[in-house]
Write a structure and sequence with these properties.
alpha+beta; three-stranded mixed sheet
Length: 78
């Protein structure tokens, strides 16, 4: 699923669940494959929780770098 990149995988997964993802990507960051896979799993869980608990149809994803950290924020409109 990550062949097209992490952000596209997140969008595709949300679409599969009937949701839309609005993105605000503030940095192009190269990640190690293992790290990218871990972030993917966290994003999947966040999307599932949004769908299950808020019944939302829209996810807002923000990603940026803060010093040596990658910040990934996922919020819903529910």
């Amino acid at each position: 699923m990550l062949e097209k990149g992490l952000i596209q995988a997140i969008k595709d997964y949300a679409k599969m669940l009937g949701m839309t993802v609005e993105t605000d990507i503030r940095a192009d960051i190269m990640l190690e494959e293992e790290t990218e896979e871990e972030i993917w799993r966290i994003a999947q869980e966040a999307i599932n929780n949004s769908k299950k608990h808020s019944g939302t149809s829209m996810i807002h994803l923000t990603s940026y770098r803060d010093d040596e950290m990658l910040i990934l924020k996922i919020r819903d409109n529910g």
